[in-house]
Amino acid sequence: MSAWRRFRHSFLSERIRSLISQSIVNNFFHFPLALLAVIFYRYPARSLKVIGVTGTDGKTTVVNLIYYILQETGLKVAMISTVSAKIGNEEIETGLHVTAPNPWLLQKLLRRMADSSIDYVVLEATSHGLDQHRLFGCNFEVGVITNVTHEHLDYHRTWEKYLAAKAKLLNGVKVAVLNRDDRSYEYLNVKCQMSNVKCFSYGIKNRADFTRANFKFKTQLPGEYNRYNCLATIATTSALGISEEKIRKAIASFKGVKGRMERIDEGQNFKVIIDFAHTPNALKQVLKTLHGTWNTRDAKLIVVFGCAGLRDRQKRPMMGKIAAQYADFVVLTAEDPRTEDVNQIIDEIAQGCFMAGAREMNHITYHISHITYHYFFRIPDRQKAINFAIQKLAQKDDIVVICGKGHEKSMCFGQTECPWSDQKAAREALKIYIPTLRVGS
Fold it and tell me: How far apart are CA 137 and CA 107, in angstroms?
């Protein structure tokens, strides 16, 4: 870790930041850096058509799906997401760890795209990136906002301020694409009207410009939330002039994104799923989908997850409650605890489990003869937690879903990023999995 990064994560740095308002940091530190990056790389976005996608959940899938449709149509397109950047046939590891890139990396990538004669760039925009001017100079032509639910209130403090940060994506755009069913819609639609921005809406529950009734499509992506992601993409690519036939064909063949409902199959007789769900809404949607779509009458749903340290603490009991409501077994574990005590984080999540009526059980004394459900377990070591879920809890036809890390390749302990992969951890657990018979089955 560099000296600068060590300082950023130090107690002194945290203390200094606590004494200075975020707006001052944004305007007198982040903005000048962004401006210098744009100048240094010769303002690359001026020769690109940039499509920005933000939202609490779904933005990575929407970015990848828009990119896929434009690519299948034969257009010269590139993308930058929190998973990777793609320029032509090259995929670039960005190591963004769930945030928008810093201005120097972003403008460097955009310059490469401009020099490669790319026409369209699909860019994932986070609320932090928008608020901190990291995306300055991107000249967004189209702005897509998937939803605005509970997240990042450690930084934004209130949902209203979080919404205002997301809305910055729409500044200067020609076209906006909004979720008609999301509670953010009215505020964002008014903002579009005041700025004379052409707005396209999509939805499932309310009347919108794009719905499943007026634009029928087939997708391999499971769940209602992915139908929303598809509709957001349909609205965006339609606004760009792509034909309905080409959009439908591409959506039907799109197989999804790494770390989003990704199946791990080593020949076991139950399902293992990796998903990035790390917000209350995302966790709820994933568990609802798995419980209602893939589950059989006798199968059980087992979820392994945690909450990040030094991040929104309000969501911890919320996620515990959601997990206990939808899953039969909940295994609470580490997820980037950073400098917080992982056991304290788990305690806060567990309060939500108790609220939902789940009972705690010691994983050390647990035995398969226990056939009652809605229990939760505390296993701070994430590999041990995954081992326990796969090797001790999972039975034939069950579903084990491991949430919170998705595509990420590291986990932060203290001030150190340690190599980590949920996919690798799940496969390690499955190597020594020995099928057992559930008592009473």
Answer: 9
In a domain, 1, yes or no: no
- Assign 422 a pLDDT band (cuts: 50, 70, 90): very high
Amino acid in the structure at residue 379: I
Q: Which residue has the tokens 């779904």?
A: 58
Give the C-alpha distances (Å, rounded to integers) separating 322 from 273, 319, 386, 392.
18, 5, 19, 23
Beta bridge partners of 262: 274
> What is the C-alpha to C-alpha distance for residues 117 and 48, in angstroms, rounded to an integer?
9
Q: Are residues 105 and 58 in the same domain?
A: yes
Model confidence at 307: pLDDT above 90? yes
Sheet holding 120-124, edge to edge: 90-92, 85-87, 77-80, 120-124, 49-54, 140-145, 175-179, 198-202
Structure tokens that stand for 223 in this block:
């769940």
The answer on 81 and 227 residing in a single domain is yes
The residues pairing with 143 across neighbouring beta strands, listed in sequence order, are 52, 176
Partners of residue 77 on adjacent β-strands: 120
- Regarding whether 157 and 133 lie in a shared domain, the answer is yes
Which helix (H) or strand (E) segment is 428 a member of?
A: helix 422-431
Dump pLDDT digits (tens) for 43-54. 999 999 999 999
